[in-house]
Design a protein that fits this description.
The protein has 243 residues and is α/β, with parallel strands linked by helices. Helix content is 41%, strand content 20%. Strand 1 and strand 2 form a beta hairpin. It has 9 helices and 8 strands. An 8-stranded mixed β-sheet has the order 1-2-4-3-5-6-7-8, sandwiched between helices. The longest helix is centred in the middle third of the chain and has 26 residues.
Length: 243
C-alpha cells in the first residue's frame, strides 16, 4: 500500500497541518479523526490495514487529516465564542485548502467522500452538507449530529450552522438542497452496542427524509459497540458493497 505524508502552513488556521495519503487511484476518501485525535489515528488503530485491498486495487485513495477539536470544542480553557470561531476556521481549511489539495493530487472530476467515526462523523456530515458543490457524499459512522452535545451549553450562530440537526431542519435553499439530493452516497451507520446512540442516527435520518434527500440508514446490532472493532468492519463493508 502506497503511503505518503505531506504538510503545509495553513493560512486558515495559522499553523502547520499534516495530511496522510494512502494509494493513488480511485475516488478520494477524506477521513476526519475522532474526538481529540490526529491524522494518523486511523492508521494506528489498524483501519488502514483493512482498507488496503481497496487501496491496492485502485478503488480508493484515502486522505487523512487533523482535527483541531483540542483547539475548539474540547478545550476547556477557551471561551465558548472562541471555540466557535476556531471551528469555523477549520471548515475554511478543509474547503479552501484540503479539497484543492485532493483535486490537485487526483483530478477535478474525482469524487470526494468524507468519512469519520464518532465526533468525526458529525464533522464529516457537516462538511458535506455545507458544501455539496465540493463534496460528493459521506460515510458517517457512530455519530451524533447535534453539535450542542459537545458545546457544554453554548449556542450561537456558528454552533447552529455547524450542527446538522439544527441547520438541516430549517434549510430551504433550493440550490443547496438539490445539490445534496443529487448524492447517492449519504450513509449513516451505527451500531447498537455499548456507548452507541442509534436513536441519534434515526432522528437525523428523519430530517433528511423530510427534505426529500436520499440516504442509507444502517443500524447494526448490539454486538457492535462504539469502538474500533466496529469501524474496522463498517468502513470496508461500505467500500466493498456501495462504491
Amino acid at each position: 500500500m502506497k503511503r505518503e505524508l505531506a504538510s503545509w502552513y495553513s493560512p486558515s488556521l495559522n499553523k502547520e497541518m499534516p495530511v496522510a495519503r494512502y494509494g493513488d487511484n480511485g475516488f478520494s476518501l477524506l477521513l476526519v479523526p475522532t474526538a481529540a485525535a490526529d491524522y494518523l489515528e486511523y492508521e494506528r488503530f489498524q483501519l488502514m490495514e483493512h482498507l488496503a485491498p481497496f487501496i491496492d486495487a485502485g478503488k480508493v485513495s484515502v486522505f487523512s487529516i487533523d482535527s483541531i477539536n483540542n483547539e475548539s470544542w474540547l478545550n476547556n480553557n477557551m471561551s465558548p465564542r472562541d471555540k466557535s470561531i476556531r471551528h469555523q476556521q477549520w471548515n475554511d481549511y478543509v474547503f479552501n485548502e484540503v479539497v484543492p489539495f485532493l483535486k490537485t493530487n487526483t483530478s477535478n472530476e474525482t469524487p470526494v467522500i468524507t468519512c469519520g467515526a464518532s465526533f468525526g462523523a458529525l464533522h464529516s456530515m457537516n462538511l458535506f452538507l455545507k458544501r455539496p458543490d465540493l463534496i460528493n457524499g459521506v460515510i458517517a459512522m457512530s455519530g451524533v449530529y447535534d453539535l450542542t452535545e459537545y458545546t457544554k451549553g453554548h449556542y450561537d450562530e456558528d454552533v447552529y450552522f455547524n450542527s446538522p440537526v439544527h441547520f438541516m431542519s430549517n434549510l430551504n435553499d433550493h440550490g443547496t438542497l438539490e445539490q445534496i439530493r443529487q448524492s447517492r452516497n449519504i450513509h449513516i451507520v451505527t451500531g447498537s452496542g455499548s456507548y452507541e446512540d442509534p436513536q441519534s442516527s434515526g432522528k437525523f435520518a428523519k430530517i433528511l427524509y423530510d427534505k426529500g434527500i436520499s440516504y442509507e440508514l444502517d443500524i447494526w446490532g448490539e454486538e457492535w459497540p462504539h469502538d474500533w472493532n466496529t469501524w474496522r468492519a463498517m468502513l470496508p463493508h461500505y467500500l466493498g458493497s456501495r462504491f
